[in-house]
Design brief:
heterodimer; A: 247 residues; alpha/beta; Rossmann fold; 2 domains; 7 helices; 10 strands; B: 262 residues; MetI-like fold; 80% helix; 0% strand
Chain lengths: 247, 262
């Protein structure tokens, strides 16, 4: 992993009215790092990601990507939301190629990338289906494929696998690691599933309850591919669990 | 597929039974009761309808020509109402300033029935085509604005977030997300708007006109010609039905994504 800083967050503060949600958060994410963010339920993880991407106006702080202020219009970023976010007026194929169309990627390259990611998420047979015709897990696969297709410098994922069945979740976790390793993307992945965080990450940021601060940053240098039954894996998982416990 | 065809066949069969029952009751009523003094038989209406297809009602226009005159008025008024209604509805739904300025005014205009505009239209525009277009416009405009506004208000902000995160600018997000999200609502408004425009043209023609399907009904009333009135009413019903079918077809084509299953 490169030591070059990809994302830099300085003094990020966000409140809704009188409710302070994010309290002066600062951290860096290195280029090609896989960062997982975990925290207690309702601690503001999604707010954290939405503030990071400026979907929410922040009260204070600075966020840069590659040294420049973060700007999705200028930088290649993809965001997978927690909720299904397929555009229901576009077919599966059109949904997946939407980002490529916006970014004016040439047709041949776009075609190859769309075919590739559709194949990975097992949607090739459903290319001409509309979202209304798909099951819940297929909808989320479309969203994941759309994010992968743009080969982003920064991929933000907000509990993307929470609504998928276990088999598909494991498959897509491995695919995500595969894509991350082959494309050099930097990933910020929010999850409430500690095992998932330990399985995927290079580093885990543990957040506190509101007003949210960073409780601890844990380096995860377990060898890949990881085994969830390995003693080191279980040790780290327990360590993170202890940090999140509020009871 | 076979089951679907069978279901459609059953539905058509029962619809035809309903229509046949009404026609039989109507005929029996006319033949054997005093209703016959007020109503022609269905057969007489059909015969007259066939006759007026090639013979003039009034000075020179046949039934299809009168229908064409009314349809032309509806198409003009409805098209203007659609364009203005969609633009205003989306602007009100997406821009707070426009909403703040226009919504109170619109809420004042909204409850006014289209026929209430007839006297004003005549005073403002005379008894020519402009007055009729205005009345038809007002009838369709309100429904289209209401529905489009509702659609624009309900655009999924997450979806806009997706577009922005993938690099879309405001204009791209507007055309790629806001407009498609509103399309079903726009169609719902246009469906209702089209039928109210069709009602309005008849009202406008009944008040001041020398041609059009509304005028044929008024002329029938003035001449005590019940058959002609019925011919006009049935022509209105058939054309209204055809317009509704046409709109539904257009919606199915343009909103294919809303249809579940293959």
């Amino acid at each position: 992993m490169s030591e070059e800083v990809m994302v830099s967050v300085k003094n990020l503060t966000k409140s809704f009215g009188d409710l302070l949600v994010l309290d002066d958060i600062s951290f860096d994410v290195k280029k090609h790092e896989f960062l997982c963010i975990v925290g207690p339920t309702g601690c503001g993880k999604t707010t954290f990601l939405n503030s990071l991407t400026k979907l929410y106006d922040i009260d204070r702080g600075a966020i840069t990507l590659g040294g420049q202020p973060i700007d999705p219009k200028k930088q290649n970023i993809a965001y997978i939301f927690q909720e299904y976010s397929t555009m229901e007026w576009l077919t599966v194929e059109e949904n997946i190629s939407y980002g490529l169309r916006i970014k004016h990627v040439d047709k041949q390259t776009a075609r190859q990338r769309v075919d590739h990611v559709m194949n990975i998420v097992g949607l090739s047979k459903y290319a001409n289906y509309y979202p209304r015709q798909l099951s819940a897990s297929m909808l989320q696969r479309v969203v994941i494929a759309r994010a992968f297709a743009v080969e982003p410098e920064l991929l933000l994922m907000d509990e993307p696998y929470g609504q998928l069945d276990l088999q598909l979740k494991y498959h897509l976790e491995d695919e995500l690691i595969n894509l991350w390793q082959t494309t050099g993307t930097t990933v910020i992945f929010i999850t409430h599933n500690i095992e998932e965080a330990v399985y995927l990450s290079d580093r885990i940021l543990v957040l506190t309850n509101k007003p949210t601060k960073i409780k601890q940053s844990l380096t995860n240098d377990l060898p890949r591919p990881r085994k969830v039954s390995a003693p080191d894996f279980i040790k780290l998982r327990n360590e993170v669990t202890d940090l999140i416990k509020w009871w | 597929m076979k089951i679907k065809l069978k279901e459609m066949g059953n539905s058509l069969f029962f619809s035809l039974i309903g229509i046949a029952a009404i026609l039989i009751l109507w005929t029996l009523g006319v033949k054997f009761t005093s209703v016959g003094l007020l109503l022609p038989t269905p057969l007489e209406v059909l015969q007259r309808m066939a006759y007026t297809f090639s013979n003039a009602i009034g000075r020179e226009l046949t039934l299809p020509m009168h229908l064409a005159v009314s349809l032309r008025r509806v198409v003009i008024g409805f098209s203007l109402a659609s364009v203005c209604g969609v633009v205003l509805g989306i602007a009100m739904g997406r821009f707070r300033m426009v909403e703040a300025v226009c919504k109170p005014l619109f809420e004042l205009v909204r409850p006014i029935p289209s026929v209430a505009w007839i006297p004003l239209a005549i005073v403002w525009f005379g008894i020519g085509e402009t007055a009729k277009t205005f009345i038809i416009f007002m009838a369709g405009f309100v429904n289209i604005v209401v529905n489009t506004y509702a659609g624009a208000k309900q655009v999924d902000e997450n979806m806009l977030g997706v577009a922005y995160m993938l690099g879309a600018n405001e204009i791209q997000a507007f055309f790629h997300v806001v407009i498609p999200s509103c399309v079903p609502y726009i169609f719902a408004g246009m469906q209702v708007g089209l039928s109210t425009c069709w009602m309005a043209v008849l009202a406008a023609e009944m008040v001041s006109s020398t041609e059009g399907i509304g005028w044929t009904i008024t002329a029938g009333q003035e001449n005590g010609d019940m058959t002609q009135i019925f011919v006009g009413i049935i022509a209105i019903a058939v054309v209204g039905l055809l317009l509704a079918v046409l709109m539904r077809w257009a919606e199915r084509v343009l909103c294919r994504w809303r249809v579940r299953g293959k």
